[in-house]
Amino acid sequence: MRTTVGWRAEGPGTTLRRTPLERRELRPDDIAVQVDFCGVCHTDLHALTARTGAQDAPLVPGHEFTGTVTEVGPEVTRFAVGDPVAVGNIVDSCGVCVMCEAGQENFCREFPTLTYSGTDRHDGSTTLGGYSREYVVRDRFVYALPAGLDPAAAAPLLCAGITVWEPLRALGVGPGTRVAVAGLGGLGHLAVKFAVALGARTTVISRTADKADDARKLGADDLLVSTDEARMAEARDRFDVVIDTISAVHDLGPYLRVVAMDGTLSQVGYLGPVAVETMDLLAGRKKLTSAGSGGTPATAAMLEFCAEHGVTADIELLPSARVNDALDRLGRNDVRYRFVLDMSDLSAG
Ligand code: NAP
């Protein structure tokens, strides 16, 4: 085993503490990455708040990071020491099922290995995430970070970005498509940037008008306040695609009603059981779908698109020692629009 240091939760509660961590020695197709920047995803907060007691396994969150290759296994050919790279929320998959063969490792029939709180396919250990100074990862799940992308602002692309990129592409969003993005947070603001860059007419649906100026700066044409019943009624049957990134349980009705005939609501935010009034689907033959993360080809394509179109996240960069503040503020919706942790402070004693 090799040792590094990171931010770990033990027992109940969301507080993380700086702790030495073990990483595996490199397998032949592994890469060791010095984690330079790691995004703070709302999923990290969900994972921490779901902890109930001392019996929970220690948790090191973090599943969207950029860094530098420090060592490669003997079978690795795509990367060399010193390369700038990025890693997302999937670090392995079976590689042989129909989903993996289609380049959709995110839907691996044997379940993809998650970057944290996943189960390593070889030794059964629990994976520890990127809120740490080093990560050891199979080369297939490492992406070259294109030149020109700021490594701190690019880190959130690897979870927030790809999670909205795949459905936007799968739903054929392009010039002239009318897209609405519900919830302007980490995922939502990247969905707006992507939809705009793809040529869509883009609207934000938010709980208040507070983010209206930001929505326009991100390139959106409009912001609808979800509680403004008159404006939501005017927007009935308007959008070909609605990407719902809302992090809490909510009524899908208002968001389905603004979907156009034969259009689609893709719910990628809150994941769990939902109740749907079938009349909201029937009236207009509307479709409800979901998505999560992305396959390796789509992730590489997204990074190239970002380099070409200058798309990165709007971030607030904090030293990793401020991780608990970041999580606290994220829970209060006090971030525009993604916290990213600078992990270099973990190199100091
Ligand atoms: P975030 O930055 O906190 O943004 C969530 C946004 O949802 C908020 O900015 C807010 O937007 C809106 N919102 C929050 N509470 C709400 C409520 N009670 N009612 C209505 N709107 C509310 O979170 P994120 O990191 O973007 O993540 C969003 C969700 O996606 C989380 O649940 C996360 O776990 C999930 N996620 C899923 C995947 C996947 O694979 N499908 C991947 C990553 C994350 P406004 O202020 O504009 O209203």
Q: Mean pLDDT, nearest integer?
A: 96
CATH architecture descriptor text of the largest domain: Alpha-Beta Complex
CATH homologous superfamily of the largest domain?
Medium-chain alcohol dehydrogenases, catalytic domain
Question: Tally the helices: what do you get?
Answer: 11
Radius of gyration: 20 Å
Most strands sheet: 7 strands, mixed
CA-based shape: globular
Overall structural class, as computed from helix and strand content, comes to: alpha/beta
- The sequence of SSEs as H and E is EEEHEEEHEEEHHEHEHEHEHEHEHEHE
The fraction of residues assigned to DSSP E strands is 25-35%
Ligand names: NADP nicotinamide-adenine-dinucleotide phosphate
Number of beta-strand segments:
17
The first-level CATH class name of the largest domain: Alpha Beta
Features:
single chain; 349 residues; binds NADP nicotinamide-adenine-dinucleotide phosphate; Quinone Oxidoreductase, Chain A, domain 1; Rossmann fold; alpha/beta; 17 strands
What would you say this structure looks like, in words?
The chain has about 350 residues and is α/β, with parallel strands linked by helices. It folds into two domains: about 1-160 and about 295-345, Alpha-Beta Complex (Quinone Oxidoreductase, Chain A, domain 1), CATH 3.90.180; about 160-290, NAD(P)-binding Rossmann-like Domain (Rossmann fold), CATH 3.40.50.720. Helices cover about 25% and strands about 25% of the residues. It is built from eleven helices and 17 strands. The protein has helices at about 40-50, 100, 150-155, 160-170, 185-195, 210-215, 230-235, 255, 280, 295-310, 325-330; strands spanning about 1-10, 15-25, 30-40, 65-70, 85, 90, 115, 135-140, 140-145, 180, 200-205, 220-225, 240-245, 260-265, 285-290, 315-320, 340. Strands 3, 4, 5, 8, 9, 16 and 17 form a seven-stranded mixed sheet that branches. Strands 12-11-10-13-14-15 form a six-stranded parallel sheet. Helix 8 (about 255) links the parallel strand 13 and strand 14 (about 260-265). Helix 4 packs across helix 5. It is globular and about 60 Å long. The chain starts with a strand and ends in a 7-residue tail after the last strand. The protein binds NADP nicotinamide-adenine-dinucleotide phosphate (NAP). NADP nicotinamide-adenine-dinucleotide phosphate (NAP) binds next to helix 1, helix 4 and helix 5.
